[in-house]
Amino acid sequence: MGITAMYAAATGMKAMDTKLNVVANNLANVGTVGFKRSRTNFEDLMYQTLREPGVKDINDEPNPYGILVGLGAAVSGTQLDFRVGSAEQTDKPLDVMIQGEGFFQVTTYYNGEEIRAYTRAGNFFRNANGQLVLGNTDGSVLEPRITLGEDDREIEIDAAGRVSAIQGAGPDRTDIGQIELARFINPEGLKSIGQNLYVETDASGPPITGNPMENGMGSLQNRMLELSNVEPVRELVDLIFTQRGFELNSQSIQGADEMLRVVANLRR
């Protein structure tokens, strides 16, 4: 049984190590715009059945319980938490926040291919061609594409996603483009690829697109950004819990080692 305990504790240490990596990533991105924290889910492994529950006892009655010895734990998955993060007012005309459900759509490159990706980050800039691009490493282009002219000024984005500006010296405001959002039946099934981006998977289902405030989409808030939804205090508590869990599993290995040492010394 000492060997079994060692292997079971080892699986627990491995699972806690994975959780530690997830918590560390959450804390590292506490200041990342639009970042969504991940939660680690665990499951128990197979069981060694020493006696089946319900086996007849000496009185020919079914035993109400059996003898089952678990063989450890494993990480069943990491789950994205898409709760809306806190809002920060920036007063920058190209900053926009989604209040409610939905993702911005951008074009980016992944594994050498041009793909459609999705993000909650709304820190947009104007590139050399006047297109709205996301403020990440690659400058992913917002889709559908919106191009601003050199003389466009006093740019505004309303709650329904309409982008307008005053062009040239004229006093009238002109519509330039329309921001569309996408949502998913199971957003937790999206795949994170870095740079504040997600891509669809079979688990997330295909995107459902539409204008803000339509088809279940959230509204937009201009000159504001959605911050990370990581709660530092909560993550630090998880960090301490994970460290203690790792230590307890290591103590189980030490206890099993001591038992085996005693058995080995019985011959002496």
Distance between the termini: 21 Å
Question: What is the structural class?
Answer: alpha+beta
The unreliable regions are none
Number of helices: 2
Sketch the major β-sheet. 5 strands, antiparallel
**What is the string of helix and strand elements?**
HEEEEEEEEEEEEEEEEEEEEH
* Proportion of helical residues: 10-25%
Average pLDDT: 93
Number of spatially distinct domains = 2
Shape: elongated
Q: How much is the radius of gyration in Å?
A: 27 Å
Give me the count of strands: 20
Percent of residues in beta strands: 25-35%
Key traits:
single chain; 268 residues; alpha+beta; 2 domains; three-stranded antiparallel β-sheet
Give a description of the structure.
By secondary structure, this protein is of the alpha+beta class. The chain has two domains: 2-80 and 230-267, no CATH class; 87-226, no CATH class. It contains two helices and 20 strands. Strands 7, 8, 11, 15 and 18 form a five-stranded antiparallel beta sheet that branches. Helix 1 packs antiparallel against helix 2. The relative contact order is 0.21.
